[in-house]
Amino acid sequence: MTALRSMTGFGRGTHTGAAYRVAVELRSVNHRYREIVVRVPRDMPGLEEPVRARIAQAVARGRVDALVAVEPLPGTRGLRVDVHLARAYRQALEDLRRELDLDDDVDLELLASLPGVIGLDESSADLEACWRDAAPALDQALAHLAAMRAAEGAALARDLAGALERLAGHVEAVAARAPQVVEAYKARLAQRVQALAGDVPVEPDRLAAEVAIFADRADISEEVVRLRSHMDQFRATLELDEPVGRRLDFLLQEMNREVNTIGSKGDGAGTAAGGVGMKGG
After folding, report:
1. pTM above the 0.70 mark?
2. Residues 54, 109: Cα–Cα separation, whole Å
3. pLDDT tens digits for the chain (281 residues)?
4. 3-state secondary structure of 156
5. SS3 of 203, please?
6. Which phi and psi angles does 268 have, rounded to 5°?
7. Integer Cα distance of 118 and 252 in angstroms
8. If you ran DSSP here, which 8-state letter would residue 200 be given?
9. Are 253 and 185 part of one and the same domain?
């Protein structure tokens, strides 16, 4: 079975651990190289590097966008109270009350509602504990991503293999017709010369020399050999368990070069049609 993989795919994984509930989404698209973009919670910047490293182990090429959502479980995070800020707020409000000659008191409810006085204690975020809970979610997302990339890769491989077989059929048809091209040229040349010469005898050696020159110019045996070799390498490359996009692209360019050469050397509608068939599948 082919190991060809597509570069496009999606994967999602979730995990509830001892301290965190984590959800990971991965999206991958075509890219010439490997690019990994990771978005993690603002209070967990240290989570970005281990996530990127784990993705890099699983993905060789393509752009991967990773979104990591982390939710602390109840009872695992503390609160932070900024007493100094609360005192500053109170002093400012007291000064404002006296300046405006107001009777309202500055109470606890008002102070607690002011920005920055009470909030989640970000320092209590445990990176190691979060990574322990995030790793299973990431692995699950990577498994789903790999499955989708493999399924699409298998479909691409089947399509490429079918196109390769059609190409092989055209190549064999053109190769089989190659000797007939020379014979047809010889017959046409003899008819033209006879029509022009009339009753004047034509030297057979001269006619044979012209045919030999044409046969050498129209010889496609080397191109056919190279084209068959490229097709064999293409089939073998489809089975490799490694990134093969660049190698396949190179082989396609070389195959196209040989097809163009065969088309330019060919003489007659049959060879021309074969060249068109090779390009069109």
Report:
1. no
2. 46
3. 447 888 899 999 999 998 899 999 999 998 888 999 999 998 788 999 999 999 999 998 899 999 999 988 876 666 778 889 889 988 888 888 888 888 878 888 888 888 888 876 655 457 888 999 999 999 999 999 999 999 998 898 889 989 999 999 888 888 888 777 767 766 676 667 666 666 656 667 666 777 677 766 777 888 889 999 999 999 998 888 888 888 999 999 999 998 888 887 765 544 555 555 566 65
4. helix
5. coil
6. 110, 160
7. 64
8. S
9. yes
Tokens found for residue 134? 């995030």
> Could you tell me the residue range of the domain that residue 108 belongs to?
79-120
Q: State how many domains the chain has.
A: 3
Q: Is the distance from CB of 36 to CB of 143 less than 8 angstroms?
A: no
* Structure tokens that stand for 257 in this block: 């070069």
Is 1 a member of any domain?
no
Contacts of 174 (CB under 8 A, 6+ apart): 220, 224, 262, 266, 270, 271, 274, 275, 278
Residue 89 to residues 12, 100, 238: CA-CA distances in angstroms? 45, 16, 69
Q: What is the C-alpha separation between 188 and 243, in angstroms, rounded?
A: 52
Structure tokens at 70: 């982390």
Statement to judge: residues 53 and 95 lie in one domain? no
The answer to whether position 4 is within a domain reads: no
